[in-house]
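Sharing in case it's useful to others searching the archive later.

Someone asked me privately for the predicted structure of Chemotaxis protein CheC, so I'm posting the question and my answer publicly. Question first, with the sequence:
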Amino acid sequence: MKTDFNISDMHLDVLKEIGNIGAAHAATSLSELLQRKIDMHVPKVALVSFDDMFELAGGSENVVVGIFLRIEGDLSGSMFFVLPIESANRFIRRLVGDDQFDFSAPDSTGEIGVSAMQELGNILSGSYLSALSDFTGLKIYPTVPSLSVDMVGAIVSFGLIEVSHYSDEVIVIDTKIVEDENDKSVDGHFFLLPDPPSYITIFQSLGVM
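And my answer, the predicted structure tokens:
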């Protein structure tokens, strides 16, 4: 990284543990929303280069569904939740009861389905940030999430503009959502891009400098 602060495997392990606690909270909320059992976990948290981040999402030109929000309060930064269109379609179709809903066909995406996807992003990001806030004691507020269906590079480039001056890496939080009913999973990625001073704030608060 270009900053004076280096993230170690220990830091990533701490973030993974926080992520799993956030995932458990999100699973509870999704189970209530969908009226069926949902499990979530974070199989991996990694620090990767920008190029590797794009590859994880299928390449910079791969079209995905992305949720973007800013982090405010004692921390600042950007957070993206990116998942394949087919995974987003499967989830939203079950949620709104519309088998024709398709993010890749704009004419078929009604306001209810789009709002449902934004709510999913709100639940997931809110659960992770709430867990991070509980662990650190910091006041952390997510902005209202915005939804985009576009190439990965186009969705994420906004968040990279500021952080690229200080860093060439991003924290990736893999997320797996499993419906017990059919054992199918929705796999997505959180890309966490704290503004440079916030790295130190996070780990000082966690006592793992």
